[in-house]
Write a structure and sequence with these properties.
The protein is mainly beta and 377 residues long. It contains no helices and 21 strands.
Amino acid sequence: MPAITRIPGWRRWWPVLLLLAGPVRATVAPTEPGATAATDTATDTAATPRGSLSVIPALFYSPETRLGAGAFAIRTFRPAGAGDDARPSSFTVGVIGTVEKQATLFLSAEHYHRGGAQRWLGQASWSHFPAKFYGVGPQTSELNEEDYTPRTFSLQGQFLLRLRPGLNVGPALEYQSLHLAKVEEGGLLATGSVPGTEGGGSAGAGLVIQFDTRDNVFFPTRGHLHEAAVAAFGGDDTWTRWRLDLRSYLPLGPRHTVALQALLLANSGQPPLTQLALLGGQNVLRGYYEGRDRDRCLAAFQAEYRRPLGGRFGAALFAAAGTVAGDTDRLAVDQARVAGGVGLRYQLSVSEGINFRLDYGVGEDSSGMYFTATEAF
């Protein structure tokens, strides 16, 4: 899920105000004839509701954005008659805006049909937001830092068909348009030498193979999620993207879990600026600005220990390493960046395992704080 916001270099940004009004959560009553409306309580009732709604507002400040505000809502639901073990479908919407006329809007939907035999996934987002560019390649220097403001619109869709328990295969479609609303005068992006800086659109189609044995979609405590995907893109630029994402969840006790992820991205051809593999951000190497390093290929590994604290609260301890390169055979361990950090969790939905998370990651001379819903991986 996209982050509501990220405040890079937390120690350098002052002041920062985060307001988390107690998350609003409402249950939706079953729709069977004769059913009565359900009332929300602090804890889930024994009778599983047909759906739930969680809403989180946020107020924040940073020198880049000045004062900003936003909110997102997660709606989960199961069809009438579905058992408690059926995977929940979900719909998420989020929006943020700032006094500097910066804004992000995103929508995502995941629907399980025919008892989970079919899975539909769709995402749409629009963003007009400042970012930083440090160049292309591993271990880029902070001396190269330049500001730019991309305006992007993207659409993604997947349809996965279950071939046997745990094994899902299906097509994927993707579209993105890019316009650079602002670049730094005298910077590398202003020269037009980086592919994609002229703006334009690209569309792609591909295939996804997924092996999924997780016990929970939002907060897995055991099982695996292994996914391999390939997509070919055309438009102003042409390229092919390969992705291998391996995740495992090892239970250590009730709600104590070690989560592991290995990620490999490889692009052949010449993807545009916003389609390069990005290191950093709320999901890959927390503690670095998203896009701190970028190139055609990326390799990363991260581990996270998750445990309860009491009531609806939990905690996480994580560590990660990753690097980028122009080709997979040039990915080098000695050029990898490392990061680690801690996180706080608040369970928005006990029945579904949806968490709000607040993570603080530290890298080499950098740090970042992230607040969003659901786990990083």
